[in-house]
Amino acid sequence: MADEREILSWQSFGAASRELASVIAEDGYRPDIILAIARGGLFAAGASLRLSVKNIYVMNVEYYTGVDERLPVPIMLPPTPEFIDLEDARILVATTWRHGHTLALVHQFCQGKVADVRAAVLYQKPNR
């Protein structure tokens, strides 16, 4: 049903964040920085303790303006992170994911400024 929505409780959101961090740790990926896309990525980035990462950046991207309402394209809001002297850094982008447009914008922003960019997606719509 199109109007049906899945509601995540804080308990299940926390459990999912910890599980995602465990999967990343077990995979052997060791990021130097976690880049949280506000707002949903902030909570996922909080599970970074499992990864022993203390360096967390935050990036604000406006896309959704309401329930099922969004801008034509996502827009990065200032201030954006300045990746100075980080060409050898490995960045893990933490986010929730609906359509992937925001993640694509942030990935493109990071390309060429750091050594490696990967994403940790906490949740995605079932039809994506």
Number of helices: 3
* Topology order in helix (H) and strand (E) letters: HEHEEEHE
Tell me the radius of gyration: 15 Å
The poorly predicted ranges are none
- Major sheet, described briefly? 5 strands, mixed
Gap between N and C termini? 16 Å
State the total count of DSSP E strands: 5
Question: Largest beta sheet: what is the strand line-up?
Answer: 3-2-1-4-5
Helix fraction, binned, reads 25-40%
How much of the polypeptide forms β-strand, as a percent range? 25-35%
Structure description:
It contains three helices and five strands. It is an alpha/beta fold and 128 residues long. Strands 3-2-1-4-5 form a five-stranded mixed β-sheet, with helices on both faces. The model has no long low-confidence stretch (mean pLDDT 85).
What is the element layout, followed by pairings?
Layout: H1 10-27, E1 33-38, H2 40-45, E2 56-66, E3 69-77, E4 90-97, H3 101-110, E5 116-124
Parallel strand pairs: 1-2, 1-4, 4-5
Antiparallel strand pairs: 2-3
Can I get a quick summary?
This protein is α/β, with parallel strands linked by helices and 128 residues long.
